[in-house]
Design goal:
alpha+beta; 3-stranded antiparallel beta sheet
Length: about 325
C-alpha cells in the first residue's frame, strides 16, 4: 500500500477535478471524465506519481472544525503542567517512551519480524456532503465518491503518527530523517487541554496550527499526522491546467480542524490510548482538464489513526500475530 497521500491524489484528480464532468449530461463528456479518472489511477499504480511531487504553497482560508480548547495550569495526577510548553514537553516524553518499544510478530510465512509495539489502526473517509463542484453538491458525484474510495484505499498497520512504516528502521521522513521521536514544539499548538481522569491517567488533547500542503514530520500538522505532502505538482503532472492564476493560487490543501488526543498512564509514562484525527480541506479552482473548462471543486478528507490496534486488525490487514 502506498502512503495515504496517493489516496488524496486520486481523490483530488479523479473526483474533485474529474467528477466535475458528471455535471454535464452528454455521454461523450462523461467518457472523457472516466478516461481522466483512469489515467489518474494508472499514475498511482505504476508509480509515476512519485516523479511529479514537488513543493508547497501558502495558507488559505478554510472553515475550522477544531474543538475549542482551554488549557488550565495545574497538577494533573501528580504531573505539574503549568504552561503549553510543559504540555508539549510531557507529550513528547510519553510519545517517545511509547514509540521506543518494539515487539516480535509472527509473519504470514511463519517467520519473526520486529516492529513497533504500539501499532495503530487507520481509516480514511470523506466528510458527508463536503464534495462540491462549482460550489454545488451533486448527488451522482457524492454517490460515486465513497465507492471509488473503498476500491483504492486499503488500511495499513503502522506506528504512532507521524509514521512511515511499522519497522522502526524504515520509519523516516521525506529527507531520510527518523520519525521515531516526536518533533512537536510549543509553536505548533493552536490550543490544548489536559484532563485528570481520576484513575491515574490523564488525557491530553492538542489542536495544531493550520498548514497548507503539510508534510509528514515537517511542520505543525505533520508533527502529529501522516500528512499527504505536496500534491500540487502531481496535479500539474497529469495534465491539469488553469483558466487563470497559478497552481499555488488554485490548488489549496488546508489542514485545519484536526486534533491529537492521547490518554497517558502517569505511572508508566506511556500512552495507553490515542486518537489522531486529521482533517484535510482540498480546494481546486479554475481547473481545465480535457474538455472541462474553468471548474472549481472542494472536499474534506478525514484520516484517523487509532491506538492501540487490535489483534484482529493487524491479522486482517497484514497477517501479523503478536508473540
Amino acid at each position: 500500500m502506498k502512503p495515504v497521500k496517493i489516496i488524496a491524489l486520486v481523490l483530488v484528480i479523479a473526483i474533485v477535478v474529474g467528477c466535475a464532468g458528471f455535471g454535464i449530461i452528454k455521454h461523450e463528456e462523461v467518457s472523457y471524465v472516466m478516461a481522466a479518472m483512469n489515467k489518474a489511477i494508472s499514475t498511482i499504480k505504476d508509480g509515476t506519481w512519485e516523479d511529479i511531487i514537488k513543493g508547497s504553497g501558502e495558507d488559505s482560508e478554510a472553515e475550522s472544525e477544531a474543538p475549542q480548547l482551554t488549557f488550565t495550569p495545574n497538577d494533573y495526577a501528580g504531573v505539574s503542567l503549568q504552561s503549553v510548553e510543559d504540555v508539549v514537553n510531557y507529550y513528547n516524553t510519553v510519545y517517545n517512551a511509547t514509540k521506543a518499544e518494539t515487539a516480535n510478530y509472527t509473519t504470514e510465512d511463519g517467520g519473526t519480524a520486529v516492529f513497533y509495539k504500539a501499532l495503530v489502526e487507520e481509516s480514511l473517509t470523506l466528510k458527508p456532503d463536503s464534495l462540491l463542484v462549482d460550489g454545488t453538491a451533486n448527488s451522482l458525484i457524492n454517490g460515486a465518491a465513497p465507492g471509488l474510495l473503498s476500491k483504492i484505499f486499503q488500511s495499513n498497520v503502522n506506528g504512532l503518527p507521524p509514521c512511515a512504516n511499522r519497522d522502526p528502521n524504515q520509519d523516516i521522513d521525506e529527507t531520510g530523517a527518523s520519525l521515531m521521536t516526536s518533533r512537536v514544539t510549543p509553536e505548533d499548538v493552536l490550543s490544548c487541554e489536559v484532563v485528570d481522569n481520576g484513575d491515574g491517567t490523564i488525557t491530553i488533547t492538542i489542536v495544531p496550527q493550520t498548514v497548507n500542503m503539510s508534510h509528514k514530520g515537517m511542520d505543525a500538522q505533520g508533527h502529529f499526522f501522516n500528512a499527504l505532502g505536496a500534491i500540487d505538482g502531481a496535479i500539474e503532472g497529469i495534465g491539469v491546467k488553469w483558466a487563470e492564476g497559478t497552481t499555488a493560487d488554485n490548488c489549496k490543501v488546508i489542514y485545519e480542524g484536526g486534533y491529537a488526543k492521547v490518554k497517558v498512564d502517569v505511572a508508566s509514562g506511556k500512552i495507553v490510548e490515542g486518537d489522531y484525527h486529521m482533517v484535510v480541506n482540498v480546494n481546486i479552482s479554475h481547473a481545465n482538464l480535457l474538455i472541462l473548462s474553468n471548474k472549481s471543486a472542494s472536499l474534506t478528507i478525514y484520516y484517523d489513526n487509532k491506538f492501540p490496534a487490535s489483534d484482529e486488525y493487524i491479522m486482517e490487514r497484514r497477517q501479523l500475530v503478536r508473540q
